[in-house]
Design goal:
299 residues; alpha+beta; Diaminopimelate Epimerase, Chain A, domain 1
């Protein structure tokens, strides 16, 4: 099976062109093997680039643990790069079908290949039931903004997080936004140093109040237009970037009065530009897409 390794500011996946070869028989099992950084190719997961009846291509994304996710902002930029660079559809604007729906992507071309991509990430989903988050007594249509963290933490985990409040300036309140997949944002004073607490994101991910699990982000606000963030990604663990997550951070910052509608986000793998457009309510994300190498998987 032929594969291509690509990344969007360090959020790396193994890509398989299912226009040119059959769909893998068991993508979930393949994702776990091929994404292994010691015994496989290595990556945050597996992405299949498939034919679509409603778009130029369809993206199917599997996390490193084999679970299938609805959407990946960094991943879809790389799908667009592959579709253009390999001649599947040579157009400056592409339509890619995802679990979130059909997205529009505008390509920036340099030297005949895609360099950067602007993705219309669609409208944010804010109602608790649609994120989804199930907190007893919470209305289905309620927005989850600066909600007390201790209201969802079990014994033991509350002590873990609240010990970090003084050390990292952690605000013990959370905000939830879905960009087709669910995200939880925690604000803090020292995001780059919060590695120890990010590991707690794995415990937050699987709390019973999040029926589909959740991605967890730690965000430091520098200026109304500039943030730094660190991510625990559902099904993959600590990642260098999360495109849907940073889109959710853009929305959360506006709704909680912390940031403007246009921001630059600094992630371990690089920077992304975000805009939550007031006219159409869509979030737009711009960033690079990079091909690393291609090879053959023996199975």
């Amino acid at each position: 099976m032929r594969f291509t390794k690509m990344h969007g500011i360090g959020n790396d996946y193994v890509y398989v062109d299912c226009f040119a070869q059959p769909l893998p028989a068991d993508p979930s099992a393949l994702a776990q093997k091929i994404a292994d950084r010691h015994f496989g190719v290595g990556g945050d997961g597996l992405i299949l680039i498939c034919p679509s009846e409603v778009a130029d291509a369809r993206m199917r994304m599997f996390n490193a643990d084999g679970s299938e996710a609805e959407m990946c902002g960094n991943g879809v930029r790389c799908v667009a790069k592959y579709v253009y660079d390999y001649g599947i559809a040579k157009k400056p604007t592409l339509k890619i079908e995802t679990g979130r729906g059909v997205l529009t992507l505008d390509l920036e071309i340099a030297g005949g290949k895609v360099d950067r991509v602007r993705v219309d990430m669609g409208e944010p989903i804010l109602e608790a039931a649609k994120i989804p988050i199930n907190i007893p007594g919470m209305a289905e249509t309620q927005t989850v903004l600066d909600y007390p963290l201790d209201s969802i933490l079990p014994d033991g985990l509350d002590d873990f997080f609240f010990r970090k409040a003084d050390k990292y300036g952690l605000d013990p309140r959370f905000t939830c936004v879905s960009m087709g997949n669910p995200h939880l944002m925690l604000y803090c004073g020292r995001a780059p140093q919060i590695q120890e607490t990010i590991l707690g994101g794995g415990q937050l991910e699987r709390l019973s109040v999040f029926p589909n699990r959740i991605n967890v982000h730690f965000v430091q606000v520098h200026l109304p237009h500039e943030v730094t963030m660190r991510t625990w990604e559902r099904g993959s663990g600590i990642t260098l970037a999360c495109g849907t997550g940073v889109s959710g951070v853009c929305v959360a910052g506006v709704l909680t009065g912390r940031t403007d509608r246009k921001i630059v986000a600094h992630l371990p793998g690089g920077d992304l530009e975000l805009e939550w457009n007031e006219k159409d309510n869509h979030v737009y994300m711009t960033g690079p897409a990079t091909e690393v190498f291609s090879g053959d998987w023996p199975d």
